[in-house]
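Why predict the complex rather than its parts? Because the way molecules touch one another can change local conformation, and only a joint prediction can capture that. The input here totals 410 residues.
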Amino acid sequence: MTTAAGTRVPQEERTRLMRARLLEATVDCLVEHGFAGTSTTLVSERAGVSRGAQLHHFPTKNDLVVAAVEHLTAKRGEELAAAAARLPAGTRRTRAVLDMLADHFTGPVFSAALELWVAARTDETLLAAVAPLEQRVGRETHRLTVELLGADESARGTRELVQATLDLVRGLGLANTITDDARRRGRILDRWADVLDEHLGKELR
Amino acid sequence: MTTAAGTRVPQEERTRLMRARLLEATVDCLVEHGFAGTSTTLVSERAGVSRGAQLHHFPTKNDLVVAAVEHLTAKRGEELAAAAARLPAGTRRTRAVLDMLADHFTGPVFSAALELWVAARTDETLLAAVAPLEQRVGRETHRLTVELLGADESARGTRELVQATLDLVRGLGLANTITDDARRRGRILDRWADVLDEHLGKELR
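Output of the joint prediction:
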């Protein structure tokens, strides 16, 4: 079983890539077919990975899905960080931050996460995997939003306004799964940007 | 098939009650087992209705679930109207309205609705049943909230703030499915009540 250092690295790299392909395919399947419609067969087909190799890495749907929770968490963090880096500076910064968050919460990674959240509601094993990572994502997204808005959390009520902003976009994301809601969402975010600017500005003074 | 008027009414009533029992059991199953875990067998057992009678009224899971969408819509309207009738008057009215909405969006009927929304995301037949009723519930909840808050929708930005309030409680409801979130939610709603009082009050002046 011992291999020379020179060949072990490529093998590890191949394993890492195959796992990543399987997890990426799991996320795609969750988006397209939902949690119930996602099967290990469908995932291995989509990933272009043999059934044997898939079963070696993830013997059950549960193994696959629990690993996909972690993969998706990392993916959400990367997506938000990349979008944050593209944000313009200037006066409509707040509105641009809200747009960025709304894009994230109405995109495919939100749909995949939503499938996992709702499945976890009635599946204890999945919940045990989802809950701690969700808390981590929540904290990181909060910290990023505070930073992007230039909010001062030591000011009374600021922390709660930032939290409310994230719950608002989560609610908008959920609404958007039923009907395309872009126009209504745009008007709500315009209004909320005004409220945030006023309150955060006032409290920073 | 013609029956005397005197016996037709009880028969119709029995049918109505049996359908209601089946739909109520469907909602309970959605809350406890999720959409994927809800089967016609489980529903007929829980309703105490024979398999034959259940299949007569709702031949497939899809028939049952589509009918449950309508039943749940009515149930949500009744729950909100009853809670609205119990609301206290007075200065903390806004906070009480938010509590009422948050209770609704973190309760079992929200969980059942969430299961249907998410299943409808990847199921066109279900989506066709869910989308128009969801729009109706949305409009009715909006109207009720405007009335309870005493908001003047002719004032600029008021409509959007009320909409944001409903999206916020929807987002809080979704967060609460993963972790019990009551303390955080309480602080956010305190803050939101202040924002609403200030903005709605200002614009009514």
